[in-house]
Design a protein that fits this description.
CATH superfamily: P-loop containing nucleotide triphosphate hydrolases
Number of helices: 7
Helix content: 25-40%
Largest sheet: 6 strands, mixed
CATH topology: Rossmann fold
Structural class: alpha/beta
Order of helices and strands: EEEHEEHEHHHEHEHEE
Bound molecules: adenosine-5'-triphosphate, magnesium ion
Strand content: 25-35%
Length: 240
Amino acid sequence: MAEATERGGAGPVLAVRGVRRTFEAELAPVRALRGVDLDVAPGELVAVMGPSGCGKSTLLNLVAGLDAPDEGEIAIAGEVITGRDADWLAHMRRRHVGIVFQFFNLLDGMTALENVVLPAVVGGRSSRRAAEGRARDLLDLLGLADRAGEVPAVLSGGQRQRLAIARALANEPTLLLADEPTGALDSEGGHEVLELFRRLHLDGQTIVMVTHAEEVAAGADRIVHLRDGVVESVTPGDGR
Ligand SMILES: Nc1ncnc2c1ncn2[C@@H]1O[C@H](COP(=O)(O)OP(=O)(O)OP(=O)(O)O)[C@@H](O)[C@H]1O
Ligand SMILES: [Mg+2]
């Protein structure tokens, strides 16, 4: 595997090699991933598509270090994350990974601003004041400046997901991961969110997005088609 590379360096931001993951189940083990390889270069937007149950979320969770493969190896920014302990992985995530889920996973008891400030403060990466400054900039960028003091419950679905994206960007992640970020949104909300991902991509953000939306996939640099736990094909998107 390549030497550690900084953000924007020459090596891949993400390297997945021969990854397998089997889950124990009542009837028979589920072989969710059966040998997956994937490289993502700096600044790429890669869409992952495939039928329900083909292993998309399993792959994303492994890349985020939230789960570990049974076989194979994953490296982020040139560092192998496979086989590391929970503390190391938590530190790696704070440094390198932002995650956006289908159902937002926001903290309902906190304001929009607090939701974005929290990861930076918890990560110990910046002072409260610096974190708040960056959070306000992100809310501004994402068109939520005037909602900073609101709690997530009063925001629309599209606004909530944009808030979740702001939170995922709070630590300036090397790699932004999204698992069906428009899956819970109506078409207008979905469109808002996709437009945002497109802008982030144009700004050079490296993104891996699981999606069922053809519209997103078409705007990606590459589309990885998963089926039954393997990469069936990789096709080019329209890119930028
Ligand atoms: N923690 C788990 N325990 C047992 N089985 C699991 C677990 N997580 C996933 N699976 C199984 O692994 C397979 C792949 O699941 P995964 O969630 O990765 O699919 P997916 O492609 O994201 O599907 P969807 O489009 O419906 O979200 C499925 O058969 C699922 O039931
Ligand atoms: Mg899924």
